[in-house]
Amino acid sequence: MPELSCPVCGGTMAVPEDALAGELFEHGECGAQLELIVDDSGSMSLKMAEEVAEDWGE
Ligand SMILES: [Zn+2]
What we know:
This protein has no helices and five strands. The chain is mainly β. The chain has a single domain (about 5-55), classed as Single Sheet (Rubrerythrin, domain 2). A hairpin with a 6-residue loop joins β1 (about 5) and β2. The model has no long low-confidence stretch (mean pLDDT about 90). Bound molecules: zinc ion.
């Protein structure tokens, strides 16, 4: 299971081997919604899902 780094908190997050590009995950450590990015060579990374930005207003 690949371990990717969270772009929000810098922690590690395990992603299932069969995860698909565009799949959303919630990082339990910081609560961020993360979107899985898979590039042409098949390497995975995470970026913050844009749709959650609105929920942060306080
Ligand atoms: Zn995080």
